[in-house]
Write a structure and sequence with these properties.
This protein is α+β, with helices and mostly antiparallel strands. The chain folds into 4 domains: about 40-310 and about 510-535, 2-Layer Sandwich (Cytochrome Bc1 Complex, Chain A, domain 1), CATH 3.30.830.10; about 320-500, Cytochrome Bc1 Complex, Chain A, domain 1 (2-Layer Sandwich), CATH 3.30.830.10; about 550-745, Cytochrome Bc1 Complex, Chain A, domain 1, CATH 3.30.830; about 770-975, Metalloenzyme, LuxS/M16 peptidase-like (Cytochrome Bc1 Complex, Chain A, domain 1, 2-Layer Sandwich). The protein contains 36 helices and 27 strands. Strands 3-4-5-6-10-7-9-8 form an 8-stranded mixed sheet, with helices on both faces. It has a 6-stranded mixed sheet with strand order 16-17-21-18-20-19, sandwiched between helices. Strands 24-25-23-26-22-27 form a 6-stranded mixed sheet, sandwiched between helices. α21 (about 590-595) crosses α27 (about 710-720). The longest helix is centred in the first third of the chain and has 20 residues, at about 105-125.
Length: about 1000
């Protein structure tokens, strides 16, 4: 981003190496096609190779009438020329712009204009004189405007939306580019037709506005301290390999000098069938589907691919130390250069070491550093690539602790690994949890598809068999082998980056070029789109929930037992849903945080963590405003033991004053770090705008109150948790009677429940006049959020609101995205959503967002306001939205214990039924005047609260006051501490 099964395996231990002989592949013919499968594969994935070399991987999953598809290209930014970095990423964006068959009103008239734009860019690319470049760009802008007369913006997105696709997107990284979507099975023929055309002859239209979106993406990375840390680390780790010598998004110089000819050359060289795979996981018939795929993609012609094979890096003879400055909290990052995953022996060994060090529960870093609170937080993770892997250690300092001290603590855990200072039982627990982690998400199509995608990119025949037998293979690794691998591979071969808080005076930005908004031609449709829409598709009947039959409810002492059986695997999940939340007990979340550092009379906190991890089970406590959920999950065979362990911890945990004093100091340091995080600042401002000074985000004990708090107070809260009214929810393989009996034995219910104290809920404010909330932050971009509370919840509005969100601001084909990004090139990311409340007595909240360059702030704010006040009308987009939202309702399925939580959610809204049935029937009756009436009644001309996070140095002082009374929020007001 490894599958567990009963593969056939013969292990031969030879010195320090693990040699695996896998008899996993089986070849089968079905009709005209031959496919391979792997023995014991729980995904039952079929691997086809079409005559033109296209790899097709199919995995059937009947949970819902949908499928996840990935079109994978085994080339990414590593394949970019050194003098034109960013090409693979540019090309990814262009694959959404259409071909000579769609996205155009008149290809014959559009093509010569696009050819002239390409020539202008080549001239612009080779011109150095600033004045001459400005003149050329002016011509590019003018010519692009003429070309846009013939372009149909976002026609790809419209086609995908009309067939009910969700999550249409793409990504580029060093070794790959992928294009992915979640599609209704009923539209599979339409989907294949569109994808086959999409990759046939992509046309690079509406290029300069999309280029501006990439500029904004680059500016976002320049505002990201983690991005700067990674770029610095990789550059030092890889002085030869492109992992370190060029970034995926490209340099500013290359971004400002794009070559359409070079982008086309990249497409011609790498977008060939023998370098591509189509991966599909979901509800379909593989025998039928493969024939359709062959028919649609058989036109592709293979050609030799000159892959990227750099010279090996020279061994590192000493650690390298670097420093990065930025406004975020301080952190140390240590990256080791390890062998790549092209060798299957290394892959599992590195995975084992990763879990031995940091598994979130019982690894060396988890226990020695986090549980003992020696740092603010620490972890380890591995980034696997074909040539090399980057194994990273990360740590944040406590108050008064230096980054160098954190570094030494992290490196000491590596030394413990090399000296064998870990128990072999931890290795066994790693294997058990590896098995659990691979089984648990198998019902999810996206998980399946991206697992298969990862191994296609690795490009070795043993990749998937190795995944399938992963747990068995990992179990064969010995402690001595771990020690010897660590000694051989974790030495001076690392780069240490100190991320320090401070002003980065070298930070740059991609300057905003003058861009004239282009036409969108919203009402236009190509002949290709019409032909796709006319294609037959299977009718899918929606399925509505029946709360009387979809799950079982049984009396459980003085409470209730809710039950759904897991018929797929041996995973269980128990939830205690407590009628207790932060509004009843303000210190509840703090008590839950403290619990992870507590032990019982018979076991220390470290021993408790090891016991849970050894059982391949885990618990989680989620605190809400009115309800708290305690979740226990893992392997059914260990349910009784883990339930006893959890109950002992909750009921018998002991105060630890030393741990609490350390925790207090760490919380205060963490709070200070939170105030350096622009994402958290904007989130807090959004709550302030919705609720006012007293809101769910800043409802916190102060630092002064925290320091005065005794540990016993929090322990008492934990001891009393299950004394409050709660229901028990079970999802697992046991029959209901046996499940109830097992839970009853491990979870004794109180005869009477304690009553909860009541506090007034948070109340949404009414925005009567425009207001601007501002927070100063050292950043290149500006981020703006619009917030407005509207009317009280009314289930009769559900259809209109869902339709409005789909049409106006919900995706890449929406009015907001098309106008602000595609036409005006104001942002990389923008959206608007009319959000429904969780409770029947609460209001709807309209939220809009845009992130842009600071010098675009006025254009961005005016642009969004214009859309809020005057919603554009597009009959074609309106009908696309209708098809999309109906298709989503038709193919939505609630699985596992989700049905129970949907029942709870509807109860909170005062409902006793699944209202999707009546909502769905209204979609055909909604017309544009109805949406317009809704928009004018609730949005147009209404006052908003604007939340703005930006650098005061980049915003003109009087600009924000034009939008409302400006309130400069202090961080204390935002965070509550």
């Amino acid at each position: 981003m490894k599958k567990f099964g009963l593969g056939l395996l013969i292990w031969i231990l030879c010195g320090n190496a693990l040699l695996a002989q896998v008899a996993g592949w089986t070849q089968t013919r079905s009709g005209a096609y031959v496919y391979r499968t792997v023995v014991g594969d729980p995904l039952k994935a079929r691997f086809y190779k079409l005559p033109n070399g296209l790899t097709v991987i199919l995995s059937v999953n009947k949970k819902a009438p949908r499928l996840q598809s990935i079109m994978a290209i085994r080339s990414g930014s590593n394949n970019d020329p050194r003098n034109h970095t960013g090409l693979a990423h540019y090309l990814e964006h262009m694959l959404f712009k259409g071909t000579d068959q769609y996205g155009t009103l008149n290809w014959a008239k559009e093509k010569p204009i696009l050819d002239s734009i390409q020539q202008l860019y080549e001239k612009y690319n080779s011109t150095t004189d600033k004045k001459a470049r400005a003149e050329i760009y002016k011509k590019i802008d003018q010519t692009s405007g003429r070309a846009a007369h013939y372009a149909i913006a976002n026609e790809y997105d419209k086609m995908m939306a009309s067939m009910g696709a969700q999550g249409s997107n793409a990504s580029t990284w060093y070794e790959y580019t992928n294009y992915f979507e979640d599609v209704p099975t009923a539209s599979i023929e339409k989907y294949l037709a569109v994808q086959a055309e999409r990759f046939r002859n992509p046309v690079f239209r509406i290029f300069h506005t999309e280029l501006e979106a990439v500029y904004e993406e680059k500016n976002g990375s320049l505002d990201s301290d983690p991005d700067k840390v990674q770029e610095t680390m990789y550059a030092a780790l890889f002085p030869t390999n492109n992992y370190g010598q060029q970034t995926t998004i490209g340099t500013i110089e290359h971004l400002k000098n794009p070559s359409l000819a070079e982008i086309r050359k990249f497409y011609n060289n790498y977008y060939v069938p023998n370098n591509m795979a189509l991966i599909m996981c979901g509800d379909f018939n593989s025998d039928s589907l493969i024939g359709k795929i062959d028919r649609y993609f058989g036109y592709m012609q293979p050609k030799p691919v000159a892959d990227y094979h750099p010279q090996p890096e020279l061994p590192m003879t000493a650690p390298i130390f670097k420093e990065v400055l930025g406004p975020d909290a301080e952190e140390v990052n240590i990256g080791f250069r390890l062998p790549g995953v092209s060798d299957p022996e290394n892959e599992l060994m590195i995975k084992m070491i990763e879990s031995l060090l940091s598994n979130g529960k019982a690894g060396l870093i988890d226990i020695n550093l986090n549980s003992n609170q020696l740092v603010l937080g620490a972890a380890a993770s591995n980034s696997p690539y074909r040539d090399y892997s980057v194994f990273e250690l990360r740590g944040r300092p406590r108050g008064g602790q230096s980054l160098e001290q954190v570094r030494d603590l992290l490196l000491a855990q590596i030394e413990k690994l090399k000296s064998g200072a870990f128990d072999e039982s931890l290795m066994q627990a790693v294997v058990a949890n590896y098995k659990l982690d691979e089984i648990q998400p198998l019902a999810d199509n996206q998980y399946r598809a991206f697992r298969l995608f990862d191994d296609f990119i690795i490009d070795r025949d043993s990749a998937w068999p190795q995944r399938v037998i992963g747990a068995t293979s990992m179990a064969a690794i010995t402690k001595q082998q771990v020690i010897e691998f660590a000694k051989a591979n974790f030495n001076v071969n690392y780069v240490c980056v100190y991320k320090r808080s401070g002003e980065d005076k070298n930070v740059m930005k991609v300057e905003k070029p003058p861009i004239t908004p282009v036409e969108l031609n919203r009402e236009a449709q190509s002949a290709f789109l019409k032909s796709v829409n006319a294609m037959p598709s299977t009718t899918v009947q929606p399925q509505w929930l029946d709360f009387k039959t979809d799950f079982q409810r049984k009396p459980f002492h003085n409470a209730e037992f809710l039950y759904v059986q897991n018929k797929d695997n041996g995973i269980f999940r128990i939830n205690y849903r407590l009628r207790l939340g932060n509004l009843n007990e303000k210190n509840l979340a703090l008590a839950v945080l403290y619990l992870q550092y507590l032990g019982t009379p018979s076991a220390s906190s470290e021993e408790v963590k090891r016991q849970f991890y050894g059982l391949a089970c885990s618990y989680n406590i989620n605190v809400g405003s009115e309800y708290t959920t305690i979740t226990l999950t893992g392997l059914q065979e260990n349910m009784a033991k883990s339930l006893t362990l959890l109950e002992n911890l909750l009921g018998q945990c002991n105060p630890n004053d030393t741990a609490f004093q350390t925790l207090k100091a760490r919380i205060i340091k963490s709070r200070a770090d939170n105030k350096l995080n622009k994402g958290l600042i904007l989130r807090g401002m959004r709550y302030y705008a919705e609720y006012g000074p007293r809101n769910p985000f800043n409802y916190q004990v102060t630092n002064e109150q925290l320091n005065a708090m005794p540990a016993k107070e929090l322990v008492n809260i934990i001891h009393s948790l299950t004394s409050y009214q709660h229901s028990v929810i079970y999802y697992g393989p046991l029959a209901v009677e046996e499940a109830m009996r097992t839970v009853e034995e491990g979870h004794p219910m109180p005869t009477t429940f304690k009553t909860t104290g009541q506090r007034s809920p948070f109340v949404q404010i009414e925005q009567k006049t425009p207001e601007v909330l501002f927070s100063d932050y050292d950043m290149v971009q500006a981020e703006i959020m619009w917030v407005r509370n509207t009317t009280l919840y009314d289930p009769a509005n559900t259809a209109t609101i869902d339709f409005f969100n789909e049409y106006f601001g919900g995706g890449m084909g929406s009015v907001v995205f098309q106008t602000l990004r595609e036409s005006k090139a104001l942002a990389y990311g923008t959206y608007a959503s009319y959000g429904s409340p969780d409770k029947k007595a609460e209001r709807y909240t309209l939220v809009g967002y845009i992130g842009c360059q600071a010098d675009k702030l006025k254009e961005a704010m005016d642009g969004m306001n214009e859309l809020f006040n005057k919603m554009p009308k597009s009959e074609k987009l309106f009908e696309t939205a209708r098809k999309s939202i109906k298709n989503q309702y038709e193919t939505e399925r609630y699985t596992e214990d989700d049905v129970i939580y949907e029942w709870y959610a509807l109860q909170d809204l005062g409902l006793d039924r699944d209202i999707r049935r009546e909502t769905y029937l209204q979609f055909d009756r909604i017309d544009f005047p109805a949406l317009l009436k809704f928009q004018q009644a609730n949005i147009a001309g209404k006052p908003f609260t604007y939340c703005v996070v930006a650098s005061r140095k980049k915003i003109k002082p009087d600009l924000l006051s034009k939008y409302g009374k400006v309130k400069n929020l202090s961080l204390r007001e935002i965070f509550g501490y």
